[in-house]
Specification:
By secondary structure, the protein is mainly α. The protein has 3 domains: 3-56, no CATH class; 67-168, DNA polymerase, domain 1; 184-323, hpI Integrase, Chain A. The chain contains 16 helices and 8 strands.
């Protein structure tokens, strides 16, 4: 480390470090000033650290580029080809709605600190909603933190920042809310209530496969093999910013899957196809050929939020406890695991990336599964209850437990 590559100079009442960064292509000498040190000793310490950074290849020249400008003008354009359209839109909305207008968004990228991020998260929790009516939920704030963490990691790799300060920030903890599911009888009540519904097959498909809302609404006739009883999940219709609906591929390779269908669901889909053919014939040229399995009466796609509203109305008519549409998926998984279906099979049908995710999300089913496993294994291993055998061998039949002997 050569001191000649950096000098300490006094300017007025403050001290500065001047780094010599070599020659430019046009022959000019490249120098970088680091100013604002209160004493010569402080500047000397800074010079030592700056020269060390140069030797390690981690030196980043001072830049006034703001966090918001980096995110919108550099980061999003650079990563857009690597993201699904829905993910890109979510990032953009989080940046433009929450990060860019905030104090932290107007700070220089290199000046952002963990404390500044923590203050930003606190503001979002207290008064972060764009409509001015209260704060964001902890999960939403954690999602925004996730965007910043990813972006700042790229800033470090690209030489725009020295460290990822999001590593040292403390986003709010998110505790998964208690899961609310329907019992098998409640699910049967719901299906009886919607038996005459025009899209009854959609409700049945949700109940018997655990597919997501977007996966059901994105299902095309070309994705179905009713002869084999199989539905291919290859795309999803999801709501992006401002109510816009986008069609996207599954997030993970496991999300793209073939889901086996039972005989009743297959029959319901056949009946639905015949009914849709009659609608197409009645409308003639006015029919909107979307190729989707579940459509409006004119063939057009169903907006996911409208679909959710229909579910709420049907559940209310059935007099059932209020749950979210997504909780039908949870109800299916809970019933499947409770019935003894292997978690790996349930995981594959749900499209989870790993079995561990399935077991974590549905950990509330584990106690009953544990008890069943204990009883089954004991029944396989033991010819007779061990306590009874002990009593018989010890000549103490009639006593209720060894502790009483």
């Amino acid at each position: 480390m050569s001191a000649a590559r950096g000098t300490v100079v006094k300017r007025g009442t403050r001290w500065s470090v001047v780094l010599d960064l070599g020659m430019a292509d046009d022959g000019r000498r490249l120098r970088q000033w680091h100013s604002g040190y209160a004493s010569k000793r402080e500047a000397e310490r800074a010079r030592t650290e700056l020269l060390s950074q140069l030797d390690r290849g981690s030196y980043v020249a001072p830049d006034k580029l703001t966090l918001a400008a980096f995110l919108l003008d550099e980061w999003l354009p650079a990563i857009r080809s690597t993201l699904r359209p829905t993910t890109l839109e979510l990032y953009r909305v989080n940046i433009t709605t929450y990060i860019a207008p905030a104090v932290v968004g107007r700070m220089a990228l290199q000046k952002v600190t963990p404390a500044a991020l923590n203050a930003f998260y606190a503001d979002l929790l207290e008064d972060g909603r764009s409509d001015g009516h209260g704060g964001l939920g902890s999960k939403s704030v954690r999602n925004i933190h996730g965007v910043l963490h990813k972006a700042l990691a790229d800033a470090v790799r690209w030489g725009r920042a020295q460290r990822n300060v999001a590593d040292l920030a403390a986003p709010p903890r998110w505790n998964r809310p208690d899961m609310v599911v329907w019992t098998a009888e409640q699910l049967r009540t719901f299906l009886r209530t919607v038996a005459d519904d025009r899209i009854y097959a959609a409700w049945l498909l949700l109940a018997t496969t655990g597919m997501r809302r977007g996966e059901v609404l994105g299902l095309r006739w070309s994705d179905l093999d009713l002869d084999q009883g199989s539905a291919g999940v290859v795309q999803s219709r999801v709501v992006a910013a401002y109510g816009e609906v986008l069609t996207s591929e599954p997030k993970t390779a496991k999300g793209r899957r073939a889901v086996a269908l039972d005989a009743a669901t297959t029959a319901a889909l056949r009946a639905h196809r015949a009914a849709q053919a009659q609608e197409r014939l009645a409308l003639g040229p006015a029919w909107r050929d979307s190729g989707l399995v579940f459509t409006l009466a004119d063939g057009g796609p169903i907006h996911p939020q409208r679909f959710t509203a229909w579910f709420g109305q049907a559940a209310a008519r059935a007099g059932l406890p209020r749950i979210r549409l997504h909780d039908l998926r949870h109800s299916y998984a809970t019933l499947a695991l409770g019935a003894g279906i292997h978690p790996k099979i349930v995981s594959e049908r749900l499209g989870h990336a790993t079995v561990a995710i399935t077991l974590d999300v549905y950990s509330h089913v584990s106690p009953s599964m544990q008890r069943e496993a204990a009883g089954l294994v004991a029944s396989w291993l033991l010819d007779e209850p061990p306590v009874a055998k002990w009593l018989q061998s010890s000549g103490r039949e009639g006593q209720t437990s060894p502790s009483e002997g």
